[in-house]
Design goal:
The chain has 318 residues and is of the alpha/beta class. It has 9 helices and 14 strands. Belongs to the ribose-phosphate pyrophosphokinase family.
Length: 318
């Protein structure tokens, strides 16, 4: 039977190491470097012939460089006769460009899907895709894992009065995620409807639901500049919420995000480690991290042994 080989790209080595540790494996030998003309160069330092190869690379940091590095690593393994190459992409790059907003806008998430397939990926593992239809952009299997079980566990362990909380969706697009969490905790749900002037600028917010004298927990798949969730936190506090938490799968936190979180009224902003958070945590004591390496490791274990990963949508493998 082929062995599992795990290689790490340079976007998030800490997560790759955690996944390897949980599987009881060493990370594969690979050297990734930039040539003087800024081309990416990859050397796989061990045989992958006939093996079941997993390459971990998240869509964060220098996104374009990291995406190119991933494509080259997939291709390097493929032409070195790897049995199967699975790209483990915890935070999928370009996931927000999943449809045409304007008449001549590209659907870049589809382009990324085509590039991964062309490079030679046989399988994709990702987490909480911004738009689940991205799975349909691929002709290869895509496992879109869910951080929800880990989020539920965090809420129950860290928020003592969670039974009387309200789960809040910061916009209409996140209603499905928020109602799913509210249903599984058997608590109330509220929605914030935002009125936009133009992309990235929120004009006003309307709260639908009641948060008075309650803990409000905002849930979202992704926060980038954090304008929306910080506005939402202020709205919830002014509507009488006692404390406000935000729980996000992908904490991108670019631009003014950290400054905004520091000055907003959050008790905590909780993110998973699909994106490295060490630097951000140094500048913001409100950011807390849920480790999801065990979910990714268990998915790899199950795919390798030909089992379904659907079990992971309801359980946190401990």
């Amino acid at each position: 039977k082929p062995n599992i080989k795990i290689f790490s790209g340079s976007s998030h080595q800490d997560l790759s190491q955690k996944i390897a540790d949980r599987l009881g494996l060493e990370l594969g030998k690979v050297v990734t470097k930039k040539l003087s003309n800024q081309e990416t160069c990859v050397e796989i330092g061990e045989s992958v012939q006939g093996e079941d190869v997993y390459i971990v690379q998240s869509g964060c940091g220098e996104i374009n460089d990291n995406l190119m590095e991933l494509l080259i690593m997939i291709n390097a393994c493929k032409i070195a006769s790897a049995g199967r190459v699975t790209a483990v992409i915890p935070c999928f790059p370009y996931a927000r460009q999943d449809k045409r907003g304007e008449s001549r806008a590209p659907i870049s998430a589809k382009l990324v899907a085509d590039m991964l397939s062309t490079a030679g990926a046989d399988h994709i593992i990702t987490m909480d895709l911004h738009a689940s239809q991205i799975q349909g952009f691929f002709d290869i299997p895509v496992d879109n894992l869910c951080a929800e079980p880990a989020v539920l566990k965090w809420i129950k362990e860290q928020i003592s009065d969670w039974r009387s909380c309200t789960i809040v969706s910061p916009d209409a697009g996140e209603v499905k995620r928020a109602t799913s969490i509210a249903d599984r905790l058997n608590v109330d749900f509220a929605l914030i409807h935002k009125v936009r002037k133009k992309a990235g600028e929120v004009d006003g917010m309307v709260l639908v639901g009641d948060v008075k004298y309650r803990v409000a927990i905002l849930v979202d798949d992704m926060a980038d500049t954090c304008g929306t969730i910080c506005h939402a936190a202020d709205k919830l506090l002014s509507a009488g919420a006692t404390r406000v938490y935000a729980i996000l799968t992908h904490g991108i936190f670019s631009g003014p995000a950290v400054t905004r979180i520091n000055s907003a009224g959050f008790e905590a902003v909780v993110v998973t480690n699909t994106v490295p958070q060490e630097d951000k945590m140094k500048h913001c004591s409100k950011i807390q991290v849920i480790d999801i390496s065990m979910i990714l490791a268990e998915a790899i274990r199950r795919i390798h042994s030909g089992k379904s990963v659907s079990y992971l949508f309801s359980h946190v493998p401990l």
